[in-house]
Structure formats: structure tokens, C-alpha cells
């Protein structure tokens, strides 16, 4: 499941979302619980721009998204990264090597 999520987080189709999600995956995917990975899988079924705007606080996410623990981590990640995201991380990061 981790490898599939990692791929889905890199190949969304919108650069801004790709950068946000791929850097989140590089930092956090290896430590997510199975439940959080399932939440993430559900979150990724949404439209790219919605995910990006929700995570960056531009629009208000629906209650079912707000209640996801993984979404709270993504939102915090977006806050910390701000404007400094310049490129996607390499695929062979140690935190996502299993699964």
C-alpha cells in the first residue's frame, strides 16, 4: 500500500499538489499507521486542487476530511513548507522503502 500511495502522491497532474504530497510522503509515509494510510488513500480520491487548497488553508475542507488524522499532518506539513518547496524528492527515500 505504501508504494502505491507514494506513486499516487507524485503523479497527480498538478505541480503544486505533486510537490506538496510528494514531500509529505518523503517525510511521513514511512511512519503512518495502517489506519492513516487508509485515510490518505481516501483523501487522494479527491480533486487535486481541493486537496491543495484544503491543505494550504485557502478553502475549508469538508468535515470528513478535517476529522482525518493524516489530513491534520498534511496541513501542518503545508504550513511548515510554505514557499520553500522547489522540487520533488527522489523516489528511493529510506522512509518509504518498505511496503
Task: Explain this structure.
The chain is an all-alpha fold and 99 residues long. The protein has helices spanning 2-10, 15-28, 34-43, 48-56, 63-66, 69-81. Helix 1 runs antiparallel to helix 2 (15-28). The longest helix is centred in the N-terminal third of the chain and has 14 residues, at 15-28. The chain starts with a helix and ends in an 18-residue tail after the last helix.
Note the total helix count. Answer: 6
**Coarse morphology:** globular
Task: Give the beta-strand count.
Answer: 0
Helicity level: 55-70%
Helix and strand string, N-terminal first?
A: HHHHHH
Low-confidence stretches: none
Key descriptive features of the protein:
60% helix; 0% strand; globular; 99 residues; 6 helices; mainly alpha
Question: In a few lines, what is going on in this structure?
Answer:
The chain is 60% helix and 0% strand.
